[in-house]
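Slide 14.
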Amino acid sequence: MDTLVFLGTGDAMGVPRVYCSCATCTEARGEGVNVRLRSSVLIDSGSDFFVIDCGPDWRRQMEAQGIRTMRRLLVTHAHFDHIGGLPEWADSCRWMGYKGELYAPAEVIPVILRQYPWLGSHIEMIPCNAGVVLDDWKITTWKVCHGKNGYSYAFRLEKAGYTWVYCPDSISLGPEETRHMHGADLLVLGTSFYYEAAKLSTRSVYDMTEAAELLGEVKPRKAVYTHMSHDVDFRKPYILPDIVTLARTGMSIPLGH
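Slide 15: predicted structure.
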């Protein structure tokens, strides 16, 4: 059975934030339970693996897992917290003597290359709009609203009768955007705050109160919240749906019935 490993569960800034002395950041600064690297997951088939997103904490995440080589990557969108580790991965590919495979929606690839023009020498950029199969996972991708930050993409992965969805950066999704989420065995969803009071027009990711409404609509069997800011303190007793777990760095869960 495949395993999903949470390499990082933080928002764009991670936790702790350098400038912040809130209770969450202070606890995390002592290597507490609230330490959160930028969001990324690894899908381990037992004989191989691939990763979704490669943020600026990529090197630290690989070291934590004891991983020395990574050949395949899916990218949800080209924001720094999801691609900031690509130069280090490219350098790894160069030294190891192989070309990495980066799968991303077609419109994301030129954005990546504008920021890191040299990556193509060491990483093959492969559009995945029509879908892709990795380790027998049939993977579908579609565009989702990322609020004031524009757009992102989500992935639906299906294998041996098991379906799960990875959607770390989205908000205010309409029926067409949630269509591929319905009835999943697992939904991994980004929720930066428990409750975010800022105006909706200034926001970019669901909070946990809104996410509960979304779960009621798409009805996954289980859900895991990720992409959490320093607003979220694991020591607090949040009111959450029974099917929800808050992701922690290094947490692993089986992908199968």
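Speaker note: The first strand starts at residue 2 and ends at 8.
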